[in-house]
Amino acid sequence: xxxxxxxxxxxxxxLTLALVLAFLLLILDLRMGAMQQVRMVLNSAVSPVxxxxxxxxxxxxxxxxxxxxxxxxxxxxxxxxxxxxxxxxVVQRFDFLxxxxxxxxxxxxxxxxxxxxxxxxxxxxxxxxxxxxQVVINKGLLHGAYLGQPVIDDQGIVGQISSVGVSTSRVIxxxxxxxxxxxxxxxxxxxxxxxxxxxxxxxxxxxVPHSTDLEEGELLFSSSLGGVFxxxxxxxxxxxxxxDESFPFAQVDARPVAQLDRIRMVxxxxxxxxxxxxxxxxxxxxxxxx
Length: 290
What we know:
By secondary structure, the protein is an alpha+beta fold. It contains 4 helices and 12 strands, in the order H-H-H-E-E-E-E-E-E-E-E-E-E-E-E-H. This is Cell shape-determining protein MreC.
């Protein structure tokens, strides 16, 4: 008899007993709520474990959000920097265009002879020869440019065209050593030739007697002698007069009014008589072809 009760329950029997007990507990909990207090106690006991189990996930989620936010801010910052750089480039371009517009307005308002035809040209190259003071402009036979044509800027006389191509021309500056320009003093009316010396900031006045009435600070204007430059355009300002009796003439220096070392836009002038007017372009091209 003792041996009968001492026999262990088989695994199948244990499973069956567990299922029966679970089924009975479900029925009791469903009908009578017998397990409600037990569930509350278990939930209270398990809550800290659930909280601790959720902490790593929350930390990882916070780190992920922080990294994503930082990356998003970095992208937005880079995008804003690019946009700011582009806007700065646009603003700089606007400033440049405003400066160019003001320069063109000054250039066009520098015309003193209302009967003279004029045309704006741009300097596209500078002669690399250190002994030559010449520039190249983007106007040629197609635009009516001609040999010897006077060229000015918004300040005064720049030079004259020394050679003409189809679409470009070469301008010899008044500072070139081979260039001489007849001028006249605005105050005393004395006529004198301003000779280039190869320096953009200095001209030399030729054959000035020691007894001259010229004074430092006087402005010299074109005198129209020689038939190249119209009369009345600013040329240079006298900066130094040296009267040394050991020389036959006084040594007089003048500074060109035009900014010869930084010219960008110039103005081509045509005489009022129409001899070299831009309307005569076909004839000029025909002569060039011959």
